[in-house]
Specification:
- By secondary structure, the chain is mainly alpha-helical.
- It is built from 5 helices and no strands.
- Helix 2 packs across helix 4 and helix 3 packs across helix 4.
- The radius of gyration is 19 Å and the shape is globular.
């Protein structure tokens, strides 16, 4: 997130495709929240959070997860950081307030879920990588995988909480901002 924010501040205006992507994302974000009701907003928000969570799950189910998971987490933080930079550069204090009230609360909960999920995925990915070493003792992989899946259900529930927060904030405060 911090890296994405700093990258966005310095390169948002100089790298035109990045600015167009951020503007498109922001316009889509506002359009979906003005046209949809509470459950539509919650569903859209849940699906976008679950995309990163599903990528973490898939990465954790392979030995390559050790390498790919930091990229997944960084991409999520980068997207939030670029959006913050766009809002600040285009709308100054009103954009910062919009980000702090509308995006940041749900994003914090979603990022926490993603970080916890990535931690579990790295642990399981390391467990899978240990199986390739001949000197390791046999492991009960089915029990470990069940625990891994159970933890991901918990992370999915955290993402659901994040999407409900997003829907509550969007239905109650979106009309307060002129963006």
């Amino acid at each position: 997130f911090i890296l994405g924010l700093s990258f966005g501040i310095f390169f948002l205006n100089s790298f035109e495709p990045l600015g167009k992507f951020a503007e498109s994302y922001l316009n889509d974000y506002i359009e979906k929240r003005t046209q949809n009701g509470f459950f539509g907003i919650a569903f859209d928000s849940f699906l976008s959070s679950m995309l990163f969570l599903a990528i973490s799950f898939i990465c954790g189910s392979s030995m390559l997860g050790i390498i790919l998971l930091p990229i997944n987490v960084s991409a999520n933080g980068f997207l939030y950081g670029i959006l913050a930079s766009l809002l600040y550069s285009e709308y100054s204090l009103n954009g910062v307030a919009f980000y702090a009230v509308m995006i940041l609360p749900a994003a914090i909960v979603s990022i926490i879920a993603l970080l916890l999920a990535s931690k579990e995925s790295i642990k399981f990915s390391l467990l899978l990588a240990r199986l390739t070493i001949k000197t390791t003792a046999p492991l009960n992989l089915s029990c470990d995988f069940k625990n891994f899946c159970g933890r991901y259900l918990t992370f999915s529930f955290i993402c659901l909480i994040s999407s409900i927060i997003d829907a509550i904030l969007s239905t109650n405060f979106l009309k307060s901002f002129s963006i």
